[in-house]
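Input:
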Amino acid sequence: MTLTWLGRAALYLCALGALGGVVDQARALRRRRPGHARRFAVVALVGIVLAIAVMQYALITHNFSLAYVAENNATFTPLLYSITGMWSALEGSLLLWVLLQSALIAAVAWYYRRQRDDAVVQWASLVLFGVQAFFTLLMVGPADPFLRNAARVVQGAGPNALLQDNPLVAAHPPLLYAGFVGFSVPFAFAVAMLITGRVHEHWPLEQRRWSVLAWGALSVGVVLGAWWSYEVLGWGGFWGWDPVENAALLPWLTATAYVHSVIVQDRRGLFRVWNLSLAVATFALTVLGTFFTRSGVLVSVHAFSSSTLGPLLIGFFFFVVVLGVGLLAWRGDRLRAPVGVDHPLSREGLFVANNIIFVGFAIVVLLGTVFPLLYQAINGSQVTVGTPYFASIAAPLAVVLLALMAIAPLVSWRSADPKVLWGRLRTSAWVALAAVVVLLLAHVTRYPELVAVFLSVMAAGAALRTLRGVLVSARRRGSWRGALRAPSTGGMVVHLGIVVLALGIVTSTTYAKRHEVTLASGQTTVVDGQRVGFYGFAHVRSALLSATELKVRVDGHSLRPAVTTYHGRNGQTVGTPAIDSTLLRDVYVTFDAVGGTGLASGAQIQSQLPVGSVVLGVTVEPLLAWLWIGGLMVGAGAALSFVRRRHVEEAP
Amino acid sequence: MKRSVLALSLAVLVVVTAMSLLLATRHPITNATQTQSPLLGHRAPSMKGPELGGGSFSLAAQRGQVVVVNFWASWCGPCRVEAPELSTFAWHERTRGVELVGVVFNDSLSAAASFAKHYGSLYPSLVDQGGVFANRFGVTSPPTTFVIDRHGRVAATLIGPTSARQLEAVVARVRS
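Output:
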């Protein structure tokens, strides 16, 4: 009872801060005086922190007087999953969402504290407080996390089984939300710039810094999500073009286009309106992604997060688009850059190509995601758009993007001399060719792999050449810290990370081999060069779960694939894969079926097999671990890009 | 060329408006799963008792009708999702020989009554003192829904939040 009122009071305080911020900024704009953004941001932040404290207290102490806790926690839920239980379902994850949004607004208010009388900052703060108010009011209204539970609940339902069997649940959702929330800043400033008409000042490049922060969080969040599904779901894959995965990919694509094209605006003053459009599109797509995740209108592996908020979220999306696009329609033509791109073979020309591909890719993914709904609305029958559609478009686009990464960083601005360019490309082209020849001699003949290796080596060459330039000039100045903050360092580290990631994806998917082997206890076999042995069952019982593990050895390493039943009402029986991972290859082992009567393990029973034998799924995927390494490199590069210096023309 | 941003923006607005309308009018796909329960094909357990807000209900008196029995609780999240769907279903099927009845599962009467009022439920709900009906039907967690055919036999068991569309499909199958 008290928890309900404490939590709600804290939420009201947060809503008060957000709404007060909106009113305060509007009044400041009307009277042309400084606003009090910091004060209202702090009020809202304190409110949401208190609300989260109440929720965490209830979760950690298993206090079932809150309906949310009774639904997503149980007396036997361990501490880590009690804490992460806050984002196991919609109402609680809104708390996390608003916390991140509030912290971001407080940071923006602090960062621009000396410009709080500037109309651009005031309009942007107004928009940000508005976004914060919307998400806070969702919790005050239809998605109340502090709803009281009248019934006496003894044990609680516990979190969804898939949300309590891997610690990545603590990292993936918060990073993803941080990415989504982060794009509200470039959107807010885009709106502010459009309203005030001041697009030619320093604002766009500063927005790049905020965007890179969000972009980095989203990138790492998406990679961690892929890692999580690889570790947990048991099919050996990491990306399935699920609507909710697409929901995260869509803003990532437009944001990637944005962080590239803003550089052109900084250096050449072009693409002003285009950049604003990308900022608007990115934020709108984060809202649309939230709709896809929370409305339940699309079939998805993330079905546990569906809710009744669909109409509100799509309404908010519509409002965001109307606001952004309406302003663009009103102001766009007057704010355009007076000049265009001089020559297609120039840095800015290749940035145009980059933008066309990223935005085109986003449109294709959006179309594929929405198509089943469109088809159903017209024909009344169900249709699914699966991996073949997405993959057949993603593969050629990825090839072009790798090629652009190989060339664009070495092309001069304005107009490039092909001879000079070839001089810069020559070394990496020969190395790439040599790598392909070596692979061919080693009987690696599949052409996707060969194309990927050739382009990746060249792209890495371009990035390394740029980084070498940075180091040389840093040594000349004697400042190594300067090298870290140089304009191109972060970006090129990201490029290297993407190259590593691309090689991991192409190699592991091209050469993945899945086998099913049936083994009796004590038997070993050789699968794809890996010695796999089965040495009996182990039964694990705890308050949280009961599991039947298989004692398996792969090349001398002990693995325990299992079938696990989580207790509690939301608990269910899930397969738990085991992975032997080295830098060269992953061996992914799943417990697929058991022979005879099944030993009551929860695994699928195949009665024609002898009692005590098991069917193991063994998937060997070369170089898969490099996906995660590449993802971390991308995150590191984004961090470097965040602290980057502005490009200044060197004195002659 | 001169007004191209304006033209393009307006085109984008039209497309987005159409898309938003399409998305706003879609219904959630619910994930109630039809399961094999030991009751399938057998005579439904008897159920007779007071309704929430007065009146009484007897399952035996409904023989000749298809009866949908839905166990719910005010503290159950998925029940909040399906409550409006159930009302839609009850309203559509009210003249077609289908009766929908709720059973309150492990909940206080005041909380259950305010839940039914909040969602304007268009179907009666039975009070289940001591969880007797829940035990007879083997219900361990709400929402669980049973479809009982005209002869009083259990024809389908649905676990999880269901939708009007799903129930209509199940009932059509049971009727034929």
